[in-house]
UniProtKB/TrEMBL annotation:
<feature type="transmembrane region" description="Helical">
    <location>
        <begin position="154"/>
        <end position="176"/>
    </location>
</feature>
<keyword id="KW-1133">Transmembrane helix</keyword>
<dbReference type="InterPro" id="IPR029787">
    <property type="entry name" value="Nucleotide_cyclase"/>
</dbReference>
<feature type="domain" description="HAMP">
    <location>
        <begin position="173"/>
        <end position="225"/>
    </location>
</feature>
<dbReference type="InterPro" id="IPR000160">
    <property type="entry name" value="GGDEF_dom"/>
</dbReference>
<feature type="transmembrane region" description="Helical">
    <location>
        <begin position="6"/>
        <end position="26"/>
    </location>
</feature>
<keyword id="KW-0812">Transmembrane</keyword>
<dbReference type="GO" id="GO:0007165">
    <property type="term" value="P:signal transduction"/>
</dbReference>
<feature type="domain" description="GGDEF">
    <location>
        <begin position="267"/>
        <end position="403"/>
    </location>
</feature>
<dbReference type="InterPro" id="IPR042461">
    <property type="entry name" value="LapD_MoxY_peri_C"/>
</dbReference>
<dbReference type="GO" id="GO:0071111">
    <property type="term" value="F:cyclic-guanylate-specific phosphodiesterase activity"/>
</dbReference>
<dbReference type="GO" id="GO:0016020">
    <property type="term" value="C:membrane"/>
</dbReference>
<dbReference type="InterPro" id="IPR003660">
    <property type="entry name" value="HAMP_dom"/>
</dbReference>
<keyword id="KW-0472">Membrane</keyword>
<dbReference type="InterPro" id="IPR050706">
    <property type="entry name" value="Cyclic-di-GMP_PDE-like"/>
</dbReference>
<protein>
    <recommendedName>
        <fullName>Diguanylate cyclase</fullName>
    </recommendedName>
</protein>
<dbReference type="Pfam" id="PF00563">
    <property type="entry name" value="EAL"/>
</dbReference>
């Protein structure tokens, strides 16, 4: 029972006790008054009969006495009347049983004993005593009056009690309303949501409780923010270049390996290797400050290229080297990107030199083309060879030519991919996610299509075409339909996780279709929806609504590739996913690198503090698994547990 209801009940009980005592006192007073009335009435009757019957009693005229008493007795107000002569003989006596009648319930008569008083009056005639008259009133009148008063009092009490209860309930609810806010704060705090009450009550005790609760919420929120800031600073030190803010060499190589060697979903690509020639001489010519400004400006020019380039990997490989991985553009577009970059850095260099004579910046670019089969190390090696060739020939740009370099996608492949997606001619592969107790939590599914030779092709071979054709939403619809069909056909099977694209979750129509589709599925509790961390941060408000709707439907929700986005992970507090998957680029050297271990341990700690499970991607070695278990990871996924296989 709530505190308000308990207070109302206690107040009502106190009121009932008070009312009961009041009713008892009033009833007892009424009882004494009625008894006095009966006594007075009996005495008056005896007096009047004595005056009237005195001569008849003296003459012992029993007939007249009987006639007179019968006339009075028939009124019903008397229970017994006796007339006794002076010698003590009974001249006449009449009595009736004290039957109350049907107007008063018997239980009330039994509950309230009421004995009418009997009054005696001596009768004198001619100054001599002639007899005695005994009169006892009938209790029926008293009981009727008493019962009527009790009914009226009870009805009035019930009406006033109901009215008082409603008034007290309203007043108590208004007074104790801040306690409901404190309850909501406590519940929200268990969900790692930090809300404060804006309205402070005027009641001193309640004001202290609300202020103390608000203070506690602020302190807990501040602790979480400080923890997030500390981890952000740790990430900046471990994975960010201090001068440019770009990923540092180890983070850049890890991300390249993650995309090209592990996921193999980047597809045909172009790697731009940007080199500042003879950085030491440039530093002496311009000075350290201007040289640093030139490096910052170069990093900004690269960031500007990435703004509209879609999927990419960018970072600083050394003091003089930068790299940028892009989806393979058309040759003329690639040329425009390179020429625009060189033109912009030349202008910046001219301003730093403060010279009117136009001078090209000592920057050259090596280009290497590749795909998911090329591999990150090979692609970087080819780009470095292109740089060396450019320096040897005193050229600013050189593209490495290798046998099998990817060519722009032809129209027939576009048509083939388009037909496969529109007809939902896809099949699913799956890779298990294994918990620390070696139980399979779910399988993450990957979409695949057949090439023109009816052989499965990697995601990188067709995803870029799907995105170029604007069919990502259609492909995600097909994946959802295939996965739901699989779950319906196997009611007791393993749960599936679907990773949706940014294009789909940013589309309100797709989100509505997905929720309507899931609402008709009996097995929706075995479905997990995953989103890339970038997709979450690009549309946090819309994703938050989707996450709440999925929670209502009973579907699990996870964030994929967690921990690499530069915007941090403060969004976890609002989004509250069921689990996160730490990006594989952070785990490649987890078994050897102390910085990686400490950073991943911090990410796991943050997730657990919010009651969010932490999973690890790209686990390939037993030593990685051992270290992750020591860091209290909840589950792992990777080639150690098996490569993706066809979902049967």
């Amino acid at each position: 029972m709530s505190l308000v209801n308990q207070l109302i009940a206690a107040t009502l009980v106190a009121m009932m006790g008070l009312a009961g005592g009041t009713i008892y006192i009033a009833s007892d007073s009424s009882k004494r008054m009625l008894t006095n009335q009966l006594e007075s009435h009996a005495l008056d009757t005896a007096t009047h009969l004595g005056l009237y019957l005195a001569p008849y009693i003296a003459n012992k005229d029993a007939a007249t006495v009987e006639t007179t008493i019968n006339a009075i007795f028939d009124s019903g107000f008397y229970q017994r009347i006796d007339v006794v002569t002076a010698e003590g003989d009974m001249l006449f006596s009449k009595s009736t049983a004290p039957v109350i009648g049907n107007t008063v319930p018997q239980w009330f008569v039994d509950l309230v004993p009421l004995t009418p008083p009997a009054m005696t009056r001596e009768v004198t005639y001619n100054w001599a005593k002639t007899g005695t008259i005994f009169v006892q009133g009938h209790p029926g009148y008293a009981y009727q009056a008493y019962w009527r008063v009790a009914q009226e009092t009870l009805v009035l009490f019930l009406f006033l009690a109901l009215l008082s209860t409603l008034a007290i309930s309203l007043v108590l609810r208004i007074i104790l309303r801040p306690l409901k806010g404190v309850e909501d704060q406590a519940i929200a705090l268990t969900r790692k949501q930090y809300i404060e009450q804006p309205r402070i009550p005027k009641t001193r005790e309640l004001r202290r409780v609300v202020e103390a609760m608000n203070q506690m919420v602020r302190q807990v929120h501040q602790m979480f923010e400080e923890q997030s800031q500390n981890i952000e600073e740790l990430r900046r030190q471990a994975y960010r270049d201090d001068l440019t803010g770009l990923p540092n060499p180890r983070a850049t190589r890890a991300q390249l390996g993650e995309r090209l060697d592990y996921r193999q979903d980047f597809g045909p690509c172009a790697l731009l290797y940007v080199h500042i020639d003879n950085l030491q001489a440039l530093n002496q010519a311009l000075g350290a400050e201007k040289t640093d400004n030139l490096i910052r400006l170069l990093s900004k020019q690269l960031s500007d290229i990435c703004t509209g380039a879609g999927d990419h990997v960018m970072g600083r490989l050394s003091g003089a080297d930068f790299t940028l991985l892009l989806k393979l553009p058309a040759p003329d577009q690639l040329q425009r990107i390179v020429n625009g970059l060189l033109s912009s850095i030349d202008q910046d260099y001219q301003q730093l030199r403060q010279s009117e004579a136009p001078t090209a910046a000592p920057v050259c670019i090596g280009i290497a083309l590749g795909n998911d089969q090329t591999g990150a190390a090979q692609l970087q090696s080819n780009a470095r060879l292109a740089i060396e060739k450019a320096l040897q020939e005193s050229r600013r740009v050189h593209q490495f030519q290798a046998p099998g370099d990817p060519q722009p996608v032809d129209e027939s492949w576009h048509a083939h991919v388009s037909a496969a997606i529109e007809n939902e001619q896809i099949f699913l592969q799956a890779q298990p996610v294994i918990s620390t107790d070696e139980q399979q939590l779910h399988q993450e599914v990957f979409a695949r299509i057949l090439n023109r030779d009816n052989s499965p092709c990697s995601a990188g071979d067709f995803i870029s075409v799907v995105r170029e054709l604007g069919l990502m939403t259609d492909m995600d619809r097909a994946v959802v339909n295939h996965a739901l069909q699989y779950l319906q056909q196997r009611p007791s099977g393993t749960a599936l996780a679907i990773n949706l694209s940014n294009e789909s979750v940013s589309n309100p129509g797709f989100r509505q279709w997905l929720l309507e589709r899931l609402s008709t599925l009996n097995e929706r509790a075995r479905l997990c929806i995953e989103l890339n961390e970038s997709s979450v941060l690009n549309n946090l408000e819309g994703i938050e609504g989707l996450r709440n709707a999925l929670r209502t439907l009973g579907c699990r929700f996870g964030v994929d590739n967690f921990g690499v986005h530069p915007s941090g992970f403060g969004y976890l507090y609002k989004l509250q996913p069921d689990y996160i998957k730490i990006d594989g680029s952070l785990l490649h050297d987890i078994d050897n690198d102390a910085q990686d271990q400490f950073f991943v341990s911090s990410l796991v700690s943050v997730a657990h503090s919010l009651d969010i499970a932490a999973y690890a991607e790209r686990v390939e070695r037993s030593s990685q698994l051992t270290q992750l278990l020591r860091l209290k990871i909840d589950a792992t996924q990777g080639f150690l547990h098996g490569t993706p296989k066809a979902l049967e």
